[in-house]
Structure prediction request, 972 residues.
Amino acid sequence: MKSAIIVFPGSNREKDAEAALTRISGTPPVLVWHRDTELPKVDLVLVPGGFSYGDYLRCGAIAAHSPILREVKARADKGMAVLGICNGFQIITEAGLLPGVLQQNAGLKFVCRNVNLRVETSQSLFTSRYEKGQVLSVPVAHHEGNYFADERTLDELESRDQVAFRYCAPDGTLDSAHNPNGSARNIAGVFNRTKNVLGLMPHPENAIDALLGSTDGQGIFQAMAEALAA
Amino acid sequence: MSVATAKITPNLIAEHGLTKEEYDLILEIMGREPSMTELGIFSVMWSEHCSYKSSRVHLKKLPTKAPWVIQGPGENAGVIDIGDGQAAIFKMESHNHPSFIEPYQGAATGVGGIMRDVFTMGARPIANLNALRFGAPDDPKTRHLVSGVVAGIGGYGNCMGVPTVGGEVNFHPSYNGNILVNAMTVGLADADNIFYSAAAGVGNPVIYVGAKTGRDGIHGATMASAEFNEDSEEKRPTVQVGDPFTEKLLLEACLELMATDAIVAIQDMGAAGLTSSSVEMSSKGGLGLELDLDKVPVRETGMTAYEIMLSESQERMLMVLKPEARDKARAIFEKWELDFAEIGVLTDTGHLVLRKNGKVEADMPVAPLVEKAPVYQRPWIPTHPQPVILANKVKAPQDLMAVLKTLVGCPDLASKRWVWEQYDHLVMGHTVQRPGGDAAVVLIPGPHGAPVGYKALAMTSDCTPRYCQADPKAGGMQAVAESWRNLTAVGAKPLAVTDNMNFGNPQRPEIMGQFALAIEGMAEACIALDYPVVSGNVSLYNETNGKGILPTPTIGGVGVIADARRSPKIAFRSPEEAIYIVGETGGWLGCSVYLREIERREEGAPPPVDLVAERRNGDFVRSQIEAEKITACHDVSDGGTLVAIAEMAMASGIGARLEGRPKESPNHAYWFGEDQSRYVLTVREADAAEFEKVSRAAGVAVRRLGTTGGTDLTLAGAGAISVAELKAAHEAFFPRLMGAAK
Prediction:
């Protein structure tokens, strides 16, 4: 799998993502600077976490209009895989690759902790290594992770199997006590219609080593490496 | 060359925080009346904050050398050799006064400032810690201050992408009008690529990079050197405003430039901004410096030389470059969209010369400005000793388990989850021990950021201010020992400390006495434990309306772990393991949390530290950790042994069955006494006999306390309490105080 990570001024988890991609796929990703207009030929583009352009104006809003994002969008429309994590999720949502928006957390505070994620489908190139209904432990670290869309969009996402992960209790039940940010229907990650684009708030790249707390994030990287193997 | 002099009135001198004697010295150095700009420069350079004029004579007593110390105090941060060609660079610094006036920005810029101190020296910051002291929980300002400070620390550190991995939060009414915000950063650099501030090479260009200069923070250093009163709110304009995004760019640009050999010297603009950075670089290099202030990137129009030199706008650096590297350097800063301006040149005159609009605004000799800075042998008196409180003079409680529940839920011992969940403690992907343990542990990143092995750094911040108040020398010693103990408890070899001395008004002999004696105690402990001081910061005048804070010498410790896979956590690992206490328990209740929270008495002599036992016990525990014999480990500190055991149980959800105490000690003194140099640890039952044998051979006192297991904490003869009930009490305090649902 050939991959690229887009680096914006203010990105801060690009190295975590680089480490995860390298460790699991065996091939180091190419780092692409935000001013570049040319995207190398890759199978996957990862838009990492951080505070792109300081998150001034609105999270991800400025990055969504960068020249490189136009290129990413064009390739995604042709089927290239795109994974947006945290700020990356905010950016690709702002760019229109995914429906909905990420609002400020309901608790109005930054939240960093391990959460339980229920896998909603194994039918995607990102989640094929998981069982539907499996509960993962993966950290979140964000201030604007409260996913919102109108009821019709949410219904549509559900009916088209576009919800990837939901926040849940350790046993997989859905309740508000285990929703760290107040997101609609406990949604933690969503696909586009063709399921080649995934955006999620939690950080699978920080859940690949038992010594650091969890290995449950490995599955996403393994699944991508398998599906996108040259 | 003539400098336009101003009309310097006694009022103006006083407003600049200078005494008549200090002004006379200025006249002697200058041989004439100073200009306004010159007066401003003298004022900030001779402020307590920049000159250490009250503390210098005492700080000299601290040990600062060891074979692994690369750079001790005097640079932007301390540097130690951690092996494999790498160095750890770290420092702690206070931002107390600004954080009280404007908590979010005050705390945020404190974090920004300390990170700059570390990356100025060529290190990538890999972890942040903070030590916070607030007033009483029910003081009307406390919630506002807690909320603002925590959000400010998170706002800056999270955006920088540096994990905030540890720290401490305490409450005491003595901080009602003067909170403490001490921030620490630990960075990592190649040992052969450290950057210093001494300028060199006459004719070399002086470069300004980073954010533009505005009118914010003028006289911040002077503010930090005076007491507070009711009018302090009016000092809000002296608080700087932070922009972590710009600092993130500055960090990346500086590290990119530092990978080339362009830089001769570099200094961040912290307190006293362009003044202290230019004076420090030129004085350390023994050179003169000419600056054209018209070339300084400014945010506002019409700024005077005085304002430009005294501004404390954030996210700025001053560098001396090799002339041939100019273009390469400029290209890097332009890539990161930061200002890059050549504002001056190094000269051989030994003078700092400042021009603005073609006029010379200042022309002053650098050496006497630094070397003749006043140094005071302030008079001091020792703290009145407190009586030792005997255990049998403290009433025994009805219900030991009810006391335990009260203690684990009291403000100082309650869970700080509400605080550290607002800090990104996982970014960079190397956090092994998250907040809530004895010390934070982070894997050492390799060249591409990702950890390459299991070598790790451990770090902690510690101080027990109530001990320091009762007996500053014993308290200073205890703060160092506790930090050494916390690092040991995670299996680290403690290497060096940074100190952040927070005290009241040094012009009061009893305060100066606290300072002098705390230093004495710290020095003794640092020497006995081979644990030198490599950097630090002094914050005096922490008083409001003449009432001082508890003396608070915060100690930030750093150690190294060869293999983090062996590092134990405080959580019990498995049921049916043997629980031991290492170290002697006498049942010392004087100055304890028990006495304060249960008996409402803040009195008595604090527990003494036997430094020989401290070292013996710690070296033994570390050797057992390295031999992989220890499955969980926790130092015993605030609240004593039973609180330590409860914390281990709450962290794991596993309970414990505890046997009775030795007969000679009353129950409450045995379980809640705060005797020093102790650890609670667990050993697999199969290893227990061997563990006892090895400890005897090492001459270390160990005693079996019981066995892990179940979901209750049971103490023979005193009843039981469920771990879940303890945890509910432990987690309740912060959300209740801050009115948060979750």
About this structure: Chain A has a mean pLDDT of 96. The longest helix of chain A spans residues 14-25. Chain A touches chain B at residues 9-13, 15-16, 18-20, 22-23, 28, 49-51, 53-56, 107, 109-113, 139, 141, 143, 177, 203, 205-206, 211-213 (CB under 8 Å).
